[in-house]
Amino acid sequence: MKKIILILLLLIGLVNAQETSVIKDAQGIIKVQDILEVNVNINNPDNFENSYEIIETIPQGFSLIQPSQPDEIQQRNALSIKMYRWRTAIESKKLFTIIYKIKPDEVGEYVIPPTKVTNLKTGEVFLSEPKKLLVLCVPDNKCEGNENSFNCPEDCAENVRDGICNYKADGICDPDCEEEPDCGNVSSTSYIYAIVIGLVFLVLLIFVINILKKSKKNEEKTDNDKEAILQKARESVKLFRERGYRDEQIKEEFFKKGWSKEDIDRIFEHI
Q1: Higher model confidence: residue 77 or residue 22?
Q2: Does pTM surpass 0.85?
Q3: CA–CA dist 100, 50 (Å, integer)
Q4: Which pLDDT tens digit goes with each residue over 40-60?
Q5: φ/ψ (deg, to 5) at 6
Q6: Which of 32, 163, 193, 242 has its CA 20 to 30 A from that of 207?
Q7: Helix (H, G, I), strand (E, B), or coil: what is residue 55?
Q8: Which residue segments constitute the domains of the chain, with CATH numbers given?
């Protein structure tokens, strides 16, 4: 029933759309043993057939099921990014759906990046929303790997250090939380330590404020001198313009003489 409602809403949205729509649909929560089916729905709102290129990036931590091989692999920061690539023609006012299947390698939270669809006639690019996924464990009475009390509550108790803070008063002390309500009061030693840190911070703050006051006076003097130089440069620009030089030529001359791009921009902004 839910799928029927989703399809109806999708069709209504596509009918009212004024441009190509790309909608990615997949389950948001699965188990590590499950195969995830991803549907990418693309509509052609025009009164004529259009050709499209569709590129789908597979998130790290997933194996390819169908198709079983990627169409392209890109290297990004020492990571191998697997990608599917399709080309298809979509008839006027028609909806086209691509279905592929992948399988998670381990538990965790993942995001399938947006689907990129390019209209090959116009060059327009359309993107779907990214799809967030939560992959849960298959309980085996062992809390290991990336498992924690969030994605594997059956195996990972909240009173075990697993990198997840369950900050709530539930009678269970979570060692991953600072000052967790169920772990008792903070010791007096911690209070003393916090007071000492606070005093040291206050002294440093006063010291920094005094330095900043002195520095501000020097900066104001320096800024005034620099502004005078910039004003003379602006006058030079006006003279160059009167002699027929283009702004690109004038900027190049300033750059050759050692002016920074930021200062050159400031000169031209206030002319």
Answers
A1: 22
A2: no
A3: 22
A4: 999 999 999 999 999 999 999
A5: -60, -45
A6: 193
A7: strand
A8: 2-136 (2.60.40.10), 139-184 (no CATH), 189-269 (no CATH)
